[in-house]
Design a protein that fits this description.
Blueprint lengths: L13 H14 L7 H6 L33 H8 L3 H10 L3 H8 L17 H12 L4 H17 L6 H10 L11 H12 L3 H12 L3 H19 L16 H13 L22 H11 L15 H29 L10 E6 L4 H11 L7 E6 L9 H16 L4 E4 L4 E4 L8 H9 L1
Parallel strand pairs: 1-2
Antiparallel strand pairs: 3-4
Helix pairs in contact: 4-7, 5-8, 7-9, 8-10, 9-12, 11-12, 15-17
Organism: Seriola lalandi dorsalis
Enzyme class: transferase
EC number: 2.3.2.26
């Protein structure tokens, strides 16, 4: 159908525009610019007329915001009057971009604060705003904050200044991330923080150190809960399929490692970083991944602070058993390849000790058979008939530990700390301490 003479021509689409431009370029190639022509066409910006000059891009000027913690009483007035317009406008504006976040929470809008000692953030005001956010009655206010965070993250994928880093520091404190409905946004925030440079991470660690112990613990617990829920969601359809968001857990764990780096002085005990949920995953598969691929593939073994004592003990025990089997197999293959008679004792670390000389005999045997230390232990007491099916090994350990700690010969019991420490008594054979290390 044709268009009338006076009808307006439709605006071409972007694809049509690019296609037309390519056809024109193919039909008429521009002549090459030689060095003389390039030299003649080189102009200085000073010779251009004022209307042609364009300003060079510079750091954005942060708008001034005058609201303070003391003045942040809009919430109380809104609850009493039922008028939430000012509160809605504040939250809608504040989180819409990194510039607005700095304008609201930075102590001095255009101050630099480029040091690890001072983030430049008004921490009291951040806490007041976030605490008030959870108590807002209209749900659209909380949704507008999340929408603003999405816009901010889409705009600022790669930070350029410390103001951008400061915005990440403020956003990660948002208490809304405790809800699984916000996990998609939380995951993208964690992904961007995990991808920051090592220098930026250094700043964040020092800024996190200055959070209150209660706020710090809340952030750590939120990250641990995020990892646990991603591993074992309460409802199958509650979160996206794990195959489509495999980067969630690595990003969260890397950010959690920043909190764990705050160690002088420690804000919370190291045991509070343990994630008990990891006791129910195939942690030996995690260990094998770490052994085979190192840090090229994510494994929880790259971040041992998150693994509980139960998991670490099980991994060490399983790895020790695997090494015992490997050592025994190598000894067996070596005998067979040389066509020698196979002795099943090759599969074990066999030691013979006298009860009267338990400590010295044990030291001599373990020193002489150091190459077999990774094999399964089998103990024989001299002059006593018996086959070690595990009972003699347990008895040997019990007697050895009793003799080591019985007197002040090697260790002294400290009543105040209820621990043993090296004895001040001069020891004749310091190699016995090596025995303690080998046995332990």
């Amino acid at each position: 159908q044709g268009l009338g003479r006076g009808a307006k021509q439709p605006f071409p689409s972007l694809g049509t525009f690019i296609s037309t431009l390519s056809q024109r370029r193919d039909a008429r190639e521009l002549p090459p610019i030689c060095s003389d022509v390039r030299q003649k066409q080189r102009l200085s910006i000073d010779t251009l007329p004022p209307e042609v000059k364009a300003p060079f891009p510079s750091d954005p000027i942060i708008p001034l915001r005058t609201k303070t913690t003391k003045e942040f009483e809009d919430m109380e007035r809104a609850v009493q009057s039922g008028d939430w317009r000012e509160v809605r406008e504040f939250y809608l504006t504040t989180f819409d971009s990194f510039i607005e976040i700095n304008a609201a929470f930075k102590r001095e809008a255009n101050g630099s604060f480029n040091t690890i000692d001072d983030s430049g953030v008004n921490a009291k005001f951040v806490n007041a705003v976030y605490d008030a956010l959870l108590s807002t009655q209209p749900q659209d206010i909380q949704k507008s904050v999340l929408k603003g965070i999405i816009n901010s993250l889409l705009r600022e994928w790669k930070p350029r200044t410390k103001d951008d880093l400061r915005a990440y520091f403020i956003l990660v404190q948002n208490p809304q991330y405790s809800s699984t409905s916000t996990y998609v946004i939380y995951a993208h925030l964690l992904r961007q923080i995990a991808a920051l440079s090592e220098a930026d991470h250094h700043f964040l660690v020092h800024w996190l150190k200055r959070l209150s112990a209660r706020r710090f613990r809340q952030l750590v617990e939120r990250l641990l809960q995020f990892i646990s829920t991603r591993l074992f969601p309460a409802e199958p359809d509650e979160l996206p399929p794990l195959a489509k968001c495999s980067w969630w857990i690595p990003s969260a764990t890397k950010v959690l490692s920043l909190f764990n780096s705050v160690s002088s002085p420690p804000i919370m005990p190291f045991t509070d970083f343990y994630n008990i949920t990891l006791e129910h995953i195939d942690f030996m598969e995690e260990y094998r991944t770490w052994q085979n691929y190192g840090n090229s593939n994510f494994s929880f073994c790259q971040f041992p602070f998150i693994l509980s004592t139960v998991v670490k003990k099980a991994i060490i025990q399983k790895d020790s058993e695997q090494q015992m089997i490997s050592q025994a197999r190598q000894s067996l293959v070596s005998k067979v390849s040389r066509r020698q008679r196979v002795d099943m004792n090759l599969l074990f670390l066999n030691i013979k000790v006298r009860r009267a000389q338990l400590l010295s005999d044990s030291l001599d045997e373990l020193t002489r058979k150091r190459c077999d230390l990774k094999k399964k232990l089998r103990v024989t007491f001299v002059g006593e008939a018996g086959l070690d099916m595990g009972g003699l090994t347990k008895e040997w350990f019990l007697l050895l530990v009793r003799q080591i700690f019985h007197t002040d010969y090697m260790f002294t019991y400290m009543k105040d700390s209820r621990c043993h420490w090296f004895s001040s008594w001069k020891c004749d054979n310091y190699s016995e301490f090596q025995l303690v290390g080998t046995v332990s």
